[in-house]
Each structure stands twice: as C-alpha cells, then as structure tokens.
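Sequence in, structure out.
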Amino acid sequence: MKKNRQLLKLAACLMGAAALMLQGCADIKGPETEKLCGPWTSVEGKPDVLVYREGDSYKVTVFARSGKTRRLRPQTYLLVEEDGNLFINTGYRIDVAYNEAADVLTFSPGGDYVRKEVQP
C-alpha cells in the first residue's frame, strides 16, 4: 500500500514536470514577436538586453554585471506567451510589453527599453 502511494506521488511529479516543459516549449507565433528582435538599452541605466529567435522560440538575454569584479554575466530566458501576454521567468514572472508606435519594450518590473542603434 505504501509503495503504491509513493508510485502515485512520483507519477504526479513527473506529469507536473512534463506539463511545465510543454508550457516552456510553446511557440510564440505572429509577426508582432518578430518585431521585438534586436538589441535594447534601458532608459533607466539597467543592463542591456537582446531579444532573438532560436528555432521556433524567442529568447531574451540580459547582459548584467555581477560580483566584486563586475564581470559580464549574460543570462538567457525563454520568452513565453500565455493568454496573449508575454513574459520571462527569472525565478519570478517579468511581463513584457511592446509599444510599436514608440518602439519601446517594457519589462514589468524592470522599466522601459529603447532599440539600440547597431554600429555598422
């Protein structure tokens, strides 16, 4: 009896992990997301970010400095769409919104980012 309960708990955990993996691998479709791609710089002096497409997924890399040496330590997160809303999960949810008219990317919390001009 005890062994059956343990197997049921294990099965529930595996099903939960599979559901999380499927959610993380969900495609973000549409031309709107493609418009987010490129380098962005914070209007508030926060770390730069890069949005790019990798296969069917979109990712956000944050170029933060950390530690005593202030060494650049980029961290990459999957851009997820849920019920029409975009977010990244850094351990907590950060919502992402794009204002096409102003070409401004907003991370909530995190502030506004403007498209960084690429040097030729």
